[in-house]
């Protein structure tokens, strides 16, 4: 192997250990930081839910339902706490649990609206139920 190649591979390995928690291979323990849960799961899922408009095909409704399932899964992970330092302790706080449960309940409202194929209920669930717990939790815990 040329020297140039081995330097590139070393750099890639270093980058890899920074972006994912490769130390921890125990999937019963938190493997993602809160930031990774936000960017990897919650942001794409909520983009689908908040972007839903004039849904027509079954596939479009199903996509919104799957996005709500992803939010519930993320809530499940947030209840355990993230993998970064201190993130499991924070997850035991009543406020954290409260905001997280609100988010999960809102995602369940989204699913109910999807099951009823009711776009008005969907947009209400998205704006009035799903958005507020994001804001409240960030005000309390982001940049802490
Ligand atoms: C239970 C608390 C909690 C809830 C609920 C929550 N978040 Fe977060 N979120 C956080 C924390 C804490 C951070 C900061 C993570 C960090 O910087 O390490 C964060 C950061 C973020 C970020 C910035 C990520 C970055 O790269 O800095 C985005 C985007 C985000 N959240 C989206 C959302 C959305 C959308 C919702 C609602 C559907 C939501 N979050 C609900 C706790 C929460």
How does this model look, in words?
- The chain is mainly α and 144 residues long.
- The protein has a single domain, classed as Up-down Bundle (Four Helix Bundle (Hemerythrin (Met), subunit A)).
- The protein has 6 helices and no strands.
- The chain has helices at 3-19, 34-51, 58-80, 87-90, 94-115, 119-141.
- It is globular.
- The structure holds heme C (HEC).
- Heme C is lined by residues 34-35, 38-39, 42-43, 46, 78, 96, 99-100, 103, 130, 133-134, 137-138, 141-142.
- The site of heme C has 19 residues, from helix 2, helix 5 and helix 6.
Brief account:
The chain is mainly alpha-helical and 144 residues long.
Features:
binds heme C, 144 residues, Four Helix Bundle (Hemerythrin (Met), subunit A), single chain
């Amino acid at each position: 192997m040329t020297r140039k190649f081995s330097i590139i591979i070393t750099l890639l390995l270093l980058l890899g250990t920074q972006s994912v928690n490769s130390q921890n291979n125990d999937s019963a323990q938190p493997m993602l930081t809160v930031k990774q849960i936000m960017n990897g799961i919650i942001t794409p899922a909520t983009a689908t839910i908040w972007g839903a408009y004039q849904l027509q095909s079954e596939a479009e409704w199903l996509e919104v339902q799957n996005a709500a399932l992803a939010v519930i899964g993320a809530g499940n992970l947030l209840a355990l706490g993230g993998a970064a330092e201190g993130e499991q302790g924070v997850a035991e706080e009543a406020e954290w649990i409260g905001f997280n449960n609100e988010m999960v309940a809102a995602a369940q409202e989204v699913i109910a609206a999807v099951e009823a194929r009711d776009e008005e209920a969907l947009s209400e669930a998205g704006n009035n139920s799903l958005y507020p717990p994001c804001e409240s939790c960030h005000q309390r815990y982001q940049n802490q």
